[in-house]
Amino acid sequence: MLFVAFTCLLFSSSSGGAGAVKLIRCKDNERQALLNFKKEIVDHKGRLLSSWGSQEEDCCKWRGIRCSNTTGHVILLDLHGWDDYATGNSFSLSGKVSPSLLELNHLKYLDLSYNEFQSIPIPEFIGSLSKLQHLNLSNNLFVGRVPHQLGNLTNLHSLHLGFNFLTVENLEWLSDLRLLRHLDLSSIYLHKVDLLQSIDRLSFLSSLHLSECNLPGIISPSLHLINSSSIPLSIIDLSYNSFTNSSIYNWLFNFSSSLVDVDMSDNPLGGSIPDAFGNMMSLKSLRLSNCAFEGEIPKSFMNLSRIRSLDLYSNNLTGQLPELFQTLFASKNSLEILELSWNKFSGSLSNSDLTSFSSLRQLGIGNNKLNGPFPKRFGQSSTLEYLDLSGNELNGSLPDLASFPLLRYLYLSKNSLKVGPESIRKLSKLKTLDLSFNLLTLEFSSDWTPHFQLDYIALSNCKLGPHFPKWIRSQSNISFLDMSSAEISDTAPNWFWDFSPKLKYLNISYNQIQGMLPDLSHKFIKLDRIDLSSNRFKGLIPLLPHNMSSLTLSNNMFSGSITSLCTVVTKFLSFLDLSDNLLSGEVPDCWINGNNLVILDLANNNFSWKIPASFSFLHHLKLLNLRNNSLIGELPSSLKNCSSLRVIDVSENKLSGKLPAWIGTDLTLLAVLSFRRNDFHGSIPPSMCLLNLTQVLDLSQNKISGNIPQCFKKFYSLIQTKSSSTIISIGFSNDIGYFVGNQIYFQSGKYVPSALVQWKGKVSKYGTTLGLLKCIDLSSNKLVGQIPQELASLVGLRSLNLSRNNLTGHFIQNISQMKELEILDLSRNILSGAIPIGLGRLNSLSVLDLSSNKFSGKIPRSTQLDTFNASVYVGNDKLCGLPLPLCPEDGSTSFPPPNDHGKAEDTFVTTGFYVSVVLGFTIGFWGFIGPLLLRSSWKFAYFKLLDQIQDWIYVTIAVNTARVQRKFRG
């Protein structure tokens, strides 16, 4: 019996496992301290603290607690949160870290990482837990300064404070942590802190993580004098900083003999990769991605015989691929990960053999300049799991990839490959297949059933059609499916809407798929993004999963009401595009829960009645497009709550009322504002001049009256002569995760808005080039008064249309300043005076219309103005000079007096014109009739031809009439 008791005591788990026999229970005061700690905590899923104090009295058996198996004191508290990407669940804590933890005097291990203790500082009392050896507060939302009291934790072996919102005044306290082995200060602002000098006293430090610390580009030259031999640094992470010069190398290469893992990625280092990296003989992992390196890989890399992971992603490196493999030949037995994507490597795969690299698991050479066919023997790597050759110039047929039996991730997009089932039929472990944007036809037979179960399929711009690919049905584990632009012109089969309960992303846009959508609310319960745009779907929009973040149904034939979508307008929805359909009825007033909606496009439908008041709850809305519907009423003042708007287009409706003043005061981020073709009236409010970012202002075809505000000169974006981008893009929360190896990657949404703009005489739709347009269109209104001379200060303006108003006064005198102007339309006003000489200095001007005004004097001459014809100036009685008749002072034709109606006569219809008409008619008539009268043979042939034509017409009509009659009788 004593033996059994001794054995249990010796082997009892200090963590209090489920089946462990505990001879010593936790202390009552420590148990109460933990319960007090729990009172201040919010356990969002009720899972991390569910066992605390429920039915188990012994706190040593609670989740996340470990006690000493000799004293019973709590020595470990591990309550880190985590994300379960497989289920989409997140387990975390929030609230307040209670000082009751001070009762845990024997605590050695404290881990509160990956939680949400947001907007609170790190408690200073933690510095009093003097026996702590491990402290992890990383990946929380702590704010404020790092408490210097942490310097009292002299027994610390590891300190993790990374990825919070913290700052430091100094790090002098850090040097007191003499036993420290692992230090993570990632994302803490250290720009003005002499950190690297502070670690000189940490003689046991082996791991240092300083990612995203805003460390300065220039490092003190004295750093290379640090006695690095006393610091056994083996892991260093300096990624995402601002290092630009070689001084960081002087410090880094002091540790060449001990370094095992180096991460310098995402620093603008530039130049060539230093040879000294090849002298790190113990190196196992080197990450130099996105560092602006150029040139070839150093020959010294031949020394890296222990390297397991080499990441040179996204640089400007060059060289031939076969030579690169030769340089890395010494690592043939150790290299597991080689990432070379997004560089400028060239050559053919035919001379590149992977056979020697016996441990290679991941190979990325995507987006380089590789060319030629995919060789039948690219190597026989039984270990390869990940292969990325996308974005190259590979051609020919993809051979059988049976030599890669463990392949799980295959990326071959943006090449010119032909793929058949024989290429991938033996890849039974394949999980990701990306063949998109290839000039290929997927030659899969209708009865082909693959041996793999994919999670991710990307076949965009591959020719899958015309029939719906049946083999997709067998892929029941799919979470990501993209078959857009695949030339499918078939009816979506019933099984397609229920084939994979795990589906999160579905894109079958830009095909000719037809049919009606079933109720999807209980079919794709995990569906996050769906894009069915540019197909031929029709009928009512059905019920959809309520947790969607993006829904695109544009350019189909959906009809009827959209009230079914009210269940989709939740906190998850960020993108909704229903444009270019046949939808009708009222826009439902159910937007109260759509606070995270960023894009709302309902353009080109048949919606009627008023704009819903609940749009006011769309606080994050950046685009609102209601163009070309039948909406009535005034623009609701509640829209001023949508202060994030960048594009608002309510053109081509029946909206009325005055232009709201709050547009200029509350929607200050607007880049595009289009109210064209409505019934707005009243004057333009001066507050509209506060729209500093506006590039397109279209108020045309309304009933707006009053003067043009002089403050238009304040449009900041129209003063700038250069556009920051050709595209006005709008980002939105639209993330989809997918696995590569042990990592999860995300795709963020980008939306490029479009606008109908009258440009060079016609209304056109602009999207990707919208950022280049800078225009003001106030045409077809009832504006009066003079054109503000201050408009000349809008030197970045490219189009100005003030036509069809009642404007008076003179031309813009300093118009020569508007050198970017391409279009100027002032026609059909009552403008007078001379045309300024400066108009001829606008070398970009390609469209000009000054017709139907009262301009006078001589038209200026210039190379640009001489390209315009007389229609540009017609209807100005007192204008003269080319291309109109010359002015009296120039001699030649006299200036024509005005007629009784006050309009200039047509100066081109002269006496010579009438003489020419008479002569032409006489010669033409008698040239044809004369020979018929004089020669009988010609007359006979002519009338015979007429008879034949008449007979042919009669017979043709009679025959076709008889056919139609027989058809109806039958």
Q: How many beta-strand runs?
A: 61
Q: Roughly what is the average pLDDT, rounded to an integer?
A: 84
Shape: globular
Helix content: 10-25%
Strand content: 15-25%
Unreliable runs: 1-22, 732-748, 892-910
Classify the secondary structure makeup into a structural class: alpha/beta
Q: Number of DSSP helices? A: 10
Q: What kind of sheet is the major sheet? A: 31 strands, mixed
The Cα radius of gyration reads: 38 Å
Instruction: State the end-to-end CA separation.
Output: 107 Å
Short summary:
With 970 residues, the chain is of the alpha/beta class. The chain is built from ten helices and 61 strands.
Question: Can you walk through the features of this model?
Answer:
This protein has 970 residues and is an alpha/beta fold. The chain has 10 helices and 61 strands. The strands form 9 sheets. It has a 31-stranded mixed β-sheet, with no helix packed on it. Strands 32-34-36-38-40-42-44-46-48-54-56 form an 11-stranded parallel β-sheet, with no helix packed on it. Helix 9 (911-934) packs across helix 10 (936-969). The longest helix is centred in the last third of the chain and has 34 residues, at 936-969. The model is unreliable at 1-22, 732-748 and 892-910 (pLDDT under 50).
Features:
globular, about 25% strand, disordered N terminus, alpha/beta, about 950 residues
Topology:
Elements: H1 2-11, H2 28-39, E1 41-43, E2 65-67, E3 74-78, E4 82-84, E5 89-91, E6 93-95, E7 109-111, E8 134-136, E9 143-145, E10 158-160, E11 165-167, E12 182-184, H3 195-198, E13 207-209, E14 235-237, H4 247-252, E15 261-263, E16 285-287, E17 294-295, E18 309-311, E19 316-320, H5 321-327, E20 337-339, E21 344-348, E22 362-364, E23 369-373, E24 386-388, E25 393-397, E26 409-411, E27 416-418, H6 421-424, E28 432-434, E29 456-458, E30 480-482, E31 505-507, E32 514-516, E33 529-531, E34 536-539, E35 550-552, E36 557-560, E37 575-577, E38 582-586, E39 599-601, E40 606-609, E41 623-625, E42 630-633, E43 647-649, E44 654-658, H7 662-666, E45 672-674, E46 679-682, E47 696-698, E48 703-706, H8 716-719, E49 730-740, E50 743-751, E51 755-759, E52 762-766, E53 775-777, E54 782-786, E55 799-801, E56 806-808, E57 823-825, E58 832-833, E59 847-849, E60 854-858, E61 878-880, H9 911-934, H10 936-969
Parallel strand pairs: 3-7, 7-8, 8-10, 9-11, 10-12, 12-13, 13-14, 14-15, 15-16, 16-18, 17-19, 18-20, 19-21, 20-22, 21-23, 22-24, 23-25, 24-26, 25-27, 26-28, 28-29, 29-30, 30-31, 31-33, 32-34, 33-35, 34-36, 35-37, 36-38, 37-39, 38-40, 39-41, 40-42, 41-43, 42-44, 43-45, 44-46, 45-47, 46-48, 47-53, ...
Antiparallel strand pairs: 1-6, 2-3, 4-5, 49-50, 51-52
